[in-house]
Amino acid sequence: MSLKFNEAFDKLMEKIPQFDSPTPTIISKDTEEIVQKIVQAFHDINSIFQGTLIDFIKTSINHPYHYPVLFLKMPFNINRIKVLQDKDASVYDLKADVQHPVVRSGYVIPYLIISLFNDDLKRALARIGQMNCASSKTYTLSVFMAENSAKGMPVFEIKTTGIECEVTLCKFSLKFQFLNDSITYFATGPHFWALDQTTLENSNAAIIKIYEYIDTCS
Questions:
Q1: Where does residue 22 rank: exposed (0-12), middle (13-18), buried (19+ CB within 10 A)?
Q2: Which of 8, 11, 19, 55 sits CB 3.0–4.6 Å from 200 for a disulfide?
């Protein structure tokens, strides 16, 4: 029996090699405190993304099951329209009959959803300012968004200062879920795309495909 899309993606991501931990390493309790504070800050600034962040802690590069993807559960329904079928992925436009900042003229706009998330993440980190952890260490947070110009796939990197030098805390691209759809989507260029089921079940091909799209340009 074929795996469901999300189950297959989870199994795939578990097989992807983990990023090397930076030196010096942030202790796990500090990492948990910082990530919890970031999630809370999205609520404090009344972000349109509050309550949508799924397993943010797993985007930490020191997490034992690090995912280079942050899932956002968007709070509205969509209707997908397939505009292109690649050999490994399907490309979609997403229609939505809802008033929401990421929706214009009845369509979810990829660059808007990325740009507004970037803006709110910066606002959330600014809201936190300097953070004092229970370990007595103090951190200042910053975020950098790089984009693979060939694929249009943004990669977010949250960094901390306060130990001995600047350290990468989290590194991820975004993937989107919607209330009435079992498919999860990446946003790139003017469209959304999703890996096909057959690609997900072929782990080697899928890993190559994901690394092609999630390229940090570093």
A1: middle
A2: 8
Q: How far apart are CA 10 and CA 210, in angstroms?
A: 13
Domain with 61, as residue range(s), is 5-212
Q: How far apart are CA 147 and CA 108, in angstroms?
A: 20
Looking at the structure of the chain, the number of domains it has is 1
203 has a pLDDT exceeding 70 = no
- pLDDT tens for each residue of 18-36: 444 444 445 478 889 999 9
Does a structural domain hold residue 169? yes
Q: Is residue 58 part of a domain?
A: yes
* pLDDT of 89: 81
Q: What are 160-182's pLDDT values in tens digits?
A: 887 566 788 899 989 999 999 98
Integer Cα distance of 25 and 36 in angstroms? 18
- Signed CA dihedral, 50, 53, 54, 56: sign only: negative
CATH of the domain at 180: 3.30.460
Find the mean pLDDT for residues 76-80: 96
CA angle 46, 39, 24 (to 5 degrees): 140
Whether residue 86 is contained in a domain is answered as yes
Residues 79 and 95 sit within 8 Å (Cβ to Cβ): yes
Work out whether strand 107-108 and strand 103-104 pair parallel, antiparallel, or are unpaired: antiparallel
Does 59 reside within a domain? Answer: yes
